[in-house]
Design goal:
The chain is an all-alpha fold. It has 20 helices and no strands. It comes from Dysgonomonas gadei ATCC BAA-286.
Length: about 450
C-alpha cells in the first residue's frame, strides 16, 4: 500500500506542475503533506517533518547556491563572459568555430546559471551566423550542449550541489568525476551530432536582446575574465587533490586545507576576489556591485524554494518508513542502482519538464537504496544529473527558449534540441557506468 501511495504522490506532483501549472514549491509542499497523512505520520508530527526537511537539505547548500549566483551574475554583468566568448572565437577561427563555441559554453556555463548563460551567449551565436554565413543550429548547438551539461552535472549549480548534500557525497570528487563524464558527452552531443543538422534553417533572434551595459565601466581583460569565472572550480579541485598527493600532512595543515576546502568558503573567496577583479578594479563602486548581488539572489529565490520542497518530500518518505521499504524492494530488481536512478530521473523529467525537480525528486526515491547498496554517492549524483537531462520536449522551458530564439519549427526543435539532450543524458550514464568499474 505504501508503494501505491508514493506512486500516486509522484503522479499528483507531475499533474500539479505540468497540467495545472502550479508552482513547483507549492506542489511539493501540498503533495508532501498529503503523502504524510496517507502514510500514517501523526498530524502533530507533520509540521516537524516539513521543517526538518527544509532544514536538512538547505543547511548545506544555501550559501553555495547564493554565492554561486552572485558570482555568475557579476561575470555576466561585467562583460567577462562576453570576453571569454570573444577570445574563444578568435582562437579557433571559422573552420573550428563549433569547438570554440563549445569550450566557451563550458567555461561560461560553470559559474552561470543555464538561463543567464543562454540569454548571454545566443546573441554571440547569431553575430557569428550573420558575419560568416553559417547555419545557426549547426554552430550554436555545441555551445548550448555545454551549458546544459554544466547545469546538470557540475557544482556549483543548484541541482548537483543539492544532490551532493542529499547523498553526503564529496563536492570536489563529484566535480572531478563530473568533468570526466561531461567532456565526452558534450563532444558527442555538440560538434559530432550537430554535423547532421547543417540543413536546418533558422530565423533571426526576435524575442530577446542582450542587455546593454551602461556607465563608465571597463571590460575586464582576458586573463582576469577566465580566472575570475573559473576560480571556484580550480579551488575545489586543488583542495581535493592536495590531500591525495600529500597524505602525510601535519594535522594543522590538514585542518587548514579542510577549512579552505569547505564549498561555502571556496565560493565566498571566489566572490570576494571577483568583487575586486570584476567590480572595483573595472570602475564599479561597492554599492553597484552589491546591487548586482542583490539581483542575483532574487533570480534564484524560487530555485531555493524548489530544492526546499524536494527536501520536504524526502523527509516525509524517511519519517514514514516508506524509504526503507522502497529500498528493500528496489534492491531486489535486477537493475544496477546507477541505471535505476538515471531511469527514475529521466521519467520524471519527461513528465515534469524541470531537470532540477526531476533530479531532486528521484533522489528522494533512490536515496535509501544508495545507502543499502553502497554505491558510490558521487557517481549517483552524476547519474541522476544525467537522467534529469533526458526527454526534453514541450513541457521544458529550455525547449521553448531554443525554439523561439532560433525561430525553428516544432519538428526541427525536437530533431535538434531534444535529441541533443538525449545524447548528453545517455552519454553521461555510460560515462558514469564506466567510472563505476574503475573507482
Amino acid at each position: 500500500m505504501s508503494f501505491i501511495i508514493i506512486i500516486l504522490s509522484l503522479a499528483l506532483l507531475i499533474v500539479l506542475i505540468s497540467y495545472f501549472k502550479i508552482n513547483a514549491f507549492l506542489s511539493f509542499l501540498i503533495v508532501s503533506i498529503l503523502a504524510g497523512v496517507a502514510l500514517g505520520i501523526p498530524l502533530e508530527s507533520l509540521p516537524v517533518s516539513v521543517n526538518n526537511g527544509i532544514g536538512t537539505i538547505m543547511k548545506d547548500l544555501t550559501l553555495i547556491i547564493v554565492l554561486g549566483a552572485m558570482l555568475g551574475k557579476l561575470v555576466a554583468e561585467s562583460g567577462a563572459a562576453q570576453k571569454i566568448a570573444d577570445v574563444m572565437v578568435a582562437a579557433f577561427g571559422t573552420k573550428h568555430i563549433q569547438w570554440g563555441l563549445m569550450i566557451t559554453g563550458f567555461i561560461v556555463g560553470i559559474p552561470l546559471f543555464y538561463g543567464i548563460g543562454f540569454v548571454l551567449l545566443v546573441p554571440l551565436i547569431f553575430s557569428i551566423v550573420y558575419k560568416y554565413k553559417l547555419p545557426a543550429v549547426y554552430i550554436g548547438l555545441p555551445m548550448l550542449a555545454a551549458l546544459s551539461v554544466t547545469h546538470g552535472f557540475l557544482p556549483p549549480h543548484p541541482s548537483p550541489v543539492a544532490l551532493v548534500s542529499i547523498f553526503k557525497a564529496d563536492i570536489g570528487m563529484t566535480l572531478i568525476y563530473g568533468l570526466a563524464v561531461a567532456i565526452p558527452a558534450i563532444i558527442l552531443a555538440g560538434p559530432v551530432f550537430s554535423k547532421t543538422l547543417k540543413n536546418i534553417k533558422s530565423g533571426p533572434v526576435t524575442l530577446f536582446e542582450q542587455k546593454e551595459t551602461t556607465g563608465n565601466f571597463r571590460t575586464p581583460g582576458k586573463a582576469n575574465s577566465f580566472i575570475s569565472a573559473t576560480l571556484p572550480v580550480f579551488l575545489l579541485i586543488l583542495v581535493t587533490v592536495i590531500p591525495l598527493c600529500f597524505p602525510n600532512m601535519s594535522v594543522g595543515i590538514k585542518s587548514f586545507v579542510s577549512f579552505i576546502g569547505a564549498p561555502s568558503l571556496v565560493m565566498l573567496l571566489a566572490v570576494i576576489a571577483a568583487t575586486y577583479t570584476l567590480g572595483i578594479r573595472q570602475g564599479r563602486s561597492i554599492k553597484e556591485v552589491m546591487d548586482i548581488y542583490g539581483d542575483a539572489v532574487k533570480d534564484i529565490a524560487m530555485i531555493l524554494l524548489i530544492i526546499a520542497g524536494a527536501g520536504i518530500f524526502k523527509q516525509i518518505m524517511e519519517d514514514s518508513g516508506v524509504s526503507t521499504e522502497l529500498a528493500n524492494s528496489l534492491e531486489q530488481l535486477p537493475v544496477h542502482p546507477l541505471i535505476l536512478g538515471w531511469l527514475i530521473a529521466a521519467i520524471i523529467r519527461g513528465c515534469v519538464g524541470s531537470a532540477t525537480v526531476a533530479a531532486l525528486t528521484a533522489a528522494g526515491v533512490i536515496m535509501p537504496l544508495v545507502i543499502q547498496s553502497g554505491v558510490n554517492p558521487n557517481l549517483m549524483v552524476l547519474s541522476l544529473g544525467a537522467g534529469s537531462l533526458m526527454f526534453s520536449h514541450v513541457n521544458d522551458a529550455g525547449f521553448w527558449m531554443f525554439k523561439e530564439y532560433f525561430n525553428l519549427s516544432l519538428k526541427d526543435t525536437l530533431r535538434s534540441w531534444s535529441v541533443m539532450e538525449a545524447i548528453v543524458s545517455i552519454a553521461g550514464l555510460i560515462g558514469v557506468l564506466l567510472l563505476s568499474f574503475i573507482i
